[in-house]
Design goal:
This protein has 236 residues and is an alpha/beta fold. It contains nine helices and eight strands.
């Protein structure tokens, strides 16, 4: 049997940095992924619209362009997210994450690099792991005790439904490992139901909320309504 790492569902990873008196729901929650092709000036208002739609645990900001352009985008987005009570996680650059005051760093890296980051940053910020395409990959990364593991690839939510492999990995992981997982949903908001059914703690959406012609506030509201209605509650 696969090992169960010694963390629980109430672990600090991605718990809402809440500026209000609200308590997060005890079921699968939303994680948003920022698009790579927008400026901070155009994306900022859309992020605030999404935040007005309901509960969001965190936003992951993928790397883009050169270091300067990435930091120029990340800095205002991190501030806006935190003001809205959303944890802001910067991908693949711990220096930028530190400079902009992010709440976490998301790394798609091997076991050694991830382990080094966990040792250096965990306790100061969330350290999440991406890039696991198989069970063996996931277990190897899990040995470093990251705060979460992410199943999916940024930018690959091009179909309405989640990828079947990501769903299968999320269902297996949630059943045998206690480190929280995030599973990438599809381009349709309704895909959150399939992810929640796996037992995953978080469902990630990007194009379903920030795609062309999408109303971010309405999309987040609908996603939360679906999760309220269909997502299983987590045990104590």
């Amino acid at each position: 049997m696969a090992p169960r790492f010694r963390l629980n569902r109430d672990h600090k990873a991605l718990r809402r940095i809440d500026m209000t008196d609200k308590s997060p729901p005890n079921r699968c929650r939303l994680v948003l992924i920022a698009p790579r092709d927008e400026s901070a000036e155009t994306f900022g208002p859309r992020l605030l619209e999404a935040a007005a739609g309901g509960d969001i645990a965190s936003i992951i900001i993928p790397a883009r362009g050169d270091e300067a352009s990435f930091q120029d985008f990340a800095a205002p987005v991190v501030r806006l997210a935190q003001t809205a009570g959303i944890a802001a996680i910067v991908a693949d650059d711990s220096r930028i994450a530190g400079r902009v005051g992010a709440d976490g760093i998301h790394l798609q890296a091997g076991k050694d690099e991830l382990g080094e980051a966990v040792g250096r940053w965990q306790g100061k910020m969330i350290v999440g792991a991406g890039g696991a395409a198989t069970r063996d990959d996931a277990l190897e990364l899990g040995e470093t005790q990251p705060d979460y593991i992410f199943f999916g690839r940024f930018g690959f939510d091009t179909k309405p439904e989640p990828h079947r492999r990501n769903l299968a990995l999320g269902q297996w992981w949630a059943a045998v490992v206690e480190i929280p997982c995030i599973v990438l949903g599809g381009s349709d908001v309704a895909s959150v139901e399939a992810v929640a059914a796996t037992g995953a703690e978080f469902v990630a959406l990007s194009s379903a909320v920030f795609g062309d012609g999408v109303d971010p506030r309405a999309a987040v509201g609908r996603a939360n309504a679906i999760l309220d209605r269909t997502a299983p509650a987590f045990g104590d």
